[in-house]
């Protein structure tokens, strides 16, 4: 037996590597999601650094590149957007589609399914949205930056999870799952804010066409039509109609994610039994193999298949490109001094760093104190404080909202300075707080977390192959 086979055998003996329903449907996707998000944070940071260098070396070249127009023509139809618009309106729709898939799965089979388990991260997320918005609004009341109140409401999953993951088993696994679920609930709130408050000049005719396309997607799914090109066409139409309606086009991606089924077409099929029947045949035809492959594939939920397919692309390609197209700010003394004196920068900085910390930790501790929610196993008040500070790492969605809130590039740059400063501060402080919490743990508690860490975040070479 070679080493990889031995490792696969050991992996299959663990609960996470088992074929149990909960392990396959929840734990394995969550572990993979966390690993991808943590790794994508590195690429997100790299994209940001490249954007900053590029913009400050040649701002004209940077702006000229992203303002280049590219179009699609088909007969009498023609759509032309700048590269920057294609990234923010097109690629980000794919990102929000995956976000929609993740939120729905959390609601159906994940932490958001059980009211008692979901209560803590949801309440914490609400506190972490309200406090930053209030602080920002108090700083910018009556000013030119008043429309940016939603900028500090967002938590960046990739960076937050990546920072917390740096501490490995020093951080309780339950705290990582709490932070992940909080970020998912935070995303849901952010999507609602974007759809409600950042739509402009709504055309109800185009909006009706977009909703009609999405309704058609739902109806053909209920009719058990499983020809994927139909869904792709309807999804593209919904995106275009939503784009023309004045509601941000990414909302079409979110709704399409919510419409994706979380149950398989053939839930009663046992993939191993199908494979065994194939092995027992004396003669196999191409049709036999094709039919068996279809049955095995359709025994896996569609949303899981799409998440496994698209999550690496959105995490490793879309988000770094988004950072490259949006993270540029001037780093010269004049621009930075102007930003530091800006109420927008101050509002974003205080909203993310102070608002998220106070809102998330305060709401979570109040929910536990009032017995509305239960405290996760092994999570202390200091752990919750560290996670609350980490929630102040706002990047992708925060920058995205700043572009929706302000047309003026100077105001956008002021907001980005606040986002960068707050995110760096939150990352550093959260590491210090969580490290202090880890030092207070007893040897028995540390041993327990190391075992849980090895179980949930094991990086065996056969893991991806074992996923549904």
Describe the model.
The protein is 73% helix and 3% strand. The protein is mainly alpha-helical and 468 residues long. It has one domain: Na+/H+ antiporter like fold (Up-down Bundle). The protein has a two-stranded antiparallel sheet with strand order 1-2. A hairpin with a 2-residue loop joins strand 1 and strand 2 (77-82). Helix 2 (21-57) packs across helix 3 (59-66), helix 8 (204-222) packs antiparallel against helix 9 (228-245) and helix 15 runs parallel beside helix 18 (409-439). Mean pLDDT is 79; it is low at 1-17 and 455-468.
CATH architecture: Up-down Bundle
Task: Give the biggest sheet.
Answer: 2 strands, antiparallel
Q: How many individual β-strands?
A: 2
- Which oligomeric state applies? single chain
CATH topology: Na+/H+ antiporter like fold
Helix fraction by DSSP (H/I, runs of at least 4): over 70%
How much strand content do the residues show? under 5%
CATH level-1 class: Mainly Alpha
Give the overall average pLDDT. Answer: 79
Please report the distance between the alpha carbons of the first and last residues.
25 Å
- What is the tally of helical segments? 20
State the shape: globular
Integer-rounded radius of gyration: 23 Å
Count of distinct structural domains: 1
**SS-derived structural category:** mainly alpha
Residue stretches low in confidence (pLDDT < 50, at least 5 long) are 1-17, 455-468
For the biggest β-sheet, the strand order reads 1-2
- What is the chain-wise order of helices and strands? HHHEEHHHHHHHHHHHHHHHHH
């Amino acid at each position: 037996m070679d080493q990889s086979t031995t490792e696969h055998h050991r992996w299959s003996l663990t609960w996470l590597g088992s074929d149990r329903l909960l392990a396959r449907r929840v734990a394995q996707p969550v572990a993979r999601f966390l690993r991808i998000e943590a790794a994508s944070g590195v690429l997100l940071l790299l994209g940001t650094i490249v954007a900053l260098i590029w913009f400050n070396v040649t701002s004209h070249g940077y702006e000229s590149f992203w303002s280049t127009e590219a179009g699609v023509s088909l007969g009498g139809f023609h759509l032309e957007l700048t590269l920057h618009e294609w990234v923010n309106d097109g690629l980000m729709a794919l990102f929000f589609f995956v976000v929609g898939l993740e939120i729905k799965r959390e609601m159906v089979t994940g932490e958001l399914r059980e009211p008692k388990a979901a209560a803590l991260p949801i309440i914490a997320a609400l506190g972490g949205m309200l406090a930053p918005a209030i602080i920002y609004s108090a700083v910018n009341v009556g000013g030119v930056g008043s429309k940016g109140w939603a900028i500090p409401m967002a938590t960046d999953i990739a960076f937050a999870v990546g920072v917390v993951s740096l501490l490995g088993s020093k951080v309780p696994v339950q705290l990582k799952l709490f932070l992940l679920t909080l970020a998912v609930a935070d995303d849901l709130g952010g999507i609602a804010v974007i759809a409600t408050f950042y739509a402009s000049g709504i055309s109800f005719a185009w909006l009706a066409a977009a909703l009609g396309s999405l309704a058609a997607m739902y109806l053909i799914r209920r009719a058990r039509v499983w020809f994927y090109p139909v869904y792709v066409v309807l999804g593209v139409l919904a995106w275009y109609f939503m784009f023309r309606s004045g509601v941000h086009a990414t909302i079409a991606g979110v709704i399409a994610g919510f419409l994706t089924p979380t149950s398989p077409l053939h839930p009663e099929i046992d993939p191993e039994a199908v494979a065994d029947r194939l092995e027992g045949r004396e003669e196999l035809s191409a049709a036999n193999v094709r039919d068996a492959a279809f049955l095995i594939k359709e025994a896996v939920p569609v949303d899981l298949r799409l998440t496994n397919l698209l999550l690496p692309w959105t995490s490793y390609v879309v988000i770094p490109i988004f950072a490259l197209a949006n993270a540029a700010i001037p780093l010269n003394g004049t621009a930075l001094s102007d930003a530091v004196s800006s109420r927008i920068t101050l509002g974003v900085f205080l909203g993310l760093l102070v608002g998220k910390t106070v809102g998330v930790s305060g709401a979570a501790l109040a929910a536990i104190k009032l017995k509305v929610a239960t405290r996760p196993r092994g999570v202390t008040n200091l752990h919750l404080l560290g996670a609350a500070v980490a929630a102040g790492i706002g990047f992708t969605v925060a920058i995205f909202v700043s572009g929706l809130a302000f047309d003026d590039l100077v105001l956008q740059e002021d907001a980005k300075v606040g986002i960068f400063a707050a995110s760096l501060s939150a990352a550093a402080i959260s590491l210090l707080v969580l490290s202090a919490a880890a030092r207070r743990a007893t040897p028995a508690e540390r041993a327990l977390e190391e075992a849980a860490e090895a179980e949930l975040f094991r990086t065996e070479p056969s893991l991806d192959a074992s996923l549904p």
